[in-house]
Automatic annotation (TrEMBL):
Protein name: ArgE/DapE family deacylase
Peptidase M20 dimerisation domain span: 210-322
Taxonomic superkingdom: Bacteria
Organism this protein belongs to: Paenisporosarcina antarctica
Family: Belongs to the peptidase M20A family.
Length: 434
């Protein structure tokens, strides 16, 4: 076990977590009732700032991302929207005395994807409804439950009168779902540590690899007309199908190539998703323009810009096979995610400490997973040399209707994080005694 603490210390903290459980569930419900979609994060971030300051007693700062500053940094992804009144919130528990352990960042994102169409839900997406051992709501699994877990893990340690041997930084960030610029802002402002944990809800397992992600937009121009003369017009939606089929062909192509070793057992590691399509404004008009927006995955070790160049060249080559698109070349642009993939060495101390914390909480050895998506861990590992992984609760329907989290697993994650903090940061002599 970590410096100057024992089984009694851990039992005391775990007991406090049990006794505070109703408060943690209530806190998670309050978080879930904020519809914190892109651009609407200000209210929940004010709530988080007040919690960090008043409930946890942390030195708290709210920082609005500065595009001019972060755009010069590796890992930056280009947004198409403003950051006005959309801060990240950081709370710091400064260790009192010489550093005896390792400093730690606990980070989570409050931005969530849309709950539409809400008609598909059986529960209010913003109601944080509890049924049995599950809580339902948009963002409850991904990933407000994880934030609640690390907040109440630290709260238990503080309220048990334990003094840590190194600083702990709590972060509530924005834009994990589209750029990662919220996390990048905290790093740019100097919030660094010896390690970091992010409680993404992958089910009580550690994360050892994730793919890279880019977003692109394809604008197809046709020749619009009244439907009466449709035979002499060119329908932009129909021409867009050429590019949709090209994206499908590209998806088959990249998945037919040799796999990255971390993904050797994943059947379909690289997803190309056509997420949005916009066209037309009248049923009896032949549309003149059609815009497709898509997401492309790629393996760790590949440069996002190289993938962008490759995708653009592939699509234009396919477009040239069509007589109309050969002369009316589609416009292909990129925005949002410019995210490299990550492959991690699980022999690092961070992972061994997490394995021990998991085993102390669950009595079982911890497994690892790889994901065909991205998380903020890439920014810490790739550009700031901060070992970081994900470990979070169990749930389902992430980004879908009736998203839910298993509350029992949230309590387990809270205890695992508490055990991790004690071991990683260390405990000052005398503060953990009965």
């Amino acid at each position: 076990m970590g410096t100057n603490w024992n089984k009694h210390t851990l039992k005391k903290v775990f007991t406090h977590i049990d006794e505070s459980w109703e408060g943690e569930v209530s806190f998670l419900q309050k978080m879930g009732q904020f519809p914190s979609t892109l651009g609407n994060e200000a209210p929940i971030q004010e709530f988080m700032a007040q919690f960090f300051k008043n409930e946890l007693g942390l030195v708290t700062e709210s920082i609005v991302p500065d595009v001019e500053k972060i755009s010069k940094l590796p890992g930056y992804s280009p947004p198409e929207w403003t950051y006005e009144n959309r801060p990240v919130v950081i709370g710091t528990w400064k260790s009192d005395g010489p550093k005896e352990g390792k400093s730690l960042i606990l980070q989570g994102h409050v931005d969530v994807v849309s709950a539409e169409p809400a008609s598909l839900w059986n529960y209010d997406p913003w109601g944080a409804t509890i049924v049995g051992d599950k809580m339902y709501g948009r963002g409850i699994q991904d990933m407000k439950s994880g934030i609640a877990a690390f907040c109440y893990a630290l709260k238990a340690i503080k309220e048990c009168g334990i003094e840590l041997g190194a600083d702990v930084i709590l972060e509530s960030v924005i834009e994990e779902e589209c750029t990662g610029n919220g996390a990048l802002t905290t790093l740019a402002e100097g919030y660094i540590a010896d390690g970091a944990l992010i409680p993404e809800p992958f089910g009580l397992v550690g994360l050892k690899a994730q793919v890279g992600v880019i977003w692109l937009r394809i604008k197809v121009t046709g020749s619009g007309a009244h439907v009466e003369r449709a035979d002499r017009a060119v329908n932009a939606i129909e021409k867009a199908y050429v590019l949709i089929e090209a994206l499908q062909t590209y998806r088959k192509h990249i998945n037919s190539q040799p796999k990255h070793p971390d993904f050797s057992n994943v059947n379909h590691p690289l997803n190309v998703n056509i997420g949005m399509i916009h066209s037309g404004d009248w049923p009896s008009n032949v549309p003149s323009e059609c815009t497709i927006e898509a997401r492309v995955g790629f393996y760790p070790g590949e440069d996002p810009q190289k993938i962008k160049d490759e995708v653009k060249a592939f699509l234009l080559e396919e477009a040239r096979k069509d007589e109309w698109l050969r002369n009316m070349e589609p416009q292909i642009t990129f925005y949002g995610f410019h995210a490299a993939g990550v492959s991690l060495d699980t022999n690092q101390a961070l992972f061994k400490t997490l394995e021990m914390a998991h085993e102390r909480t669950t009595g079982e050895k911890m497994d690892y997973t790889v994901i065909t998506a991205t998380t903020d861990i890439r920014l810490y590992n790739l550009y700031y040399d901060i070992p970081t992984t994900c470990y979070g609760p169990v749930g389902d329907n992430m980004h879908g209707a009736d998203e839910w989290v298993d509350l029992n697993s949230v309590k387990e994650v809270t205890k695992t994080y508490a055990a991790f903090i004690l071991d990683w940061c260390g405990v000052r002599a005398g503060s953990s005694q009965p």
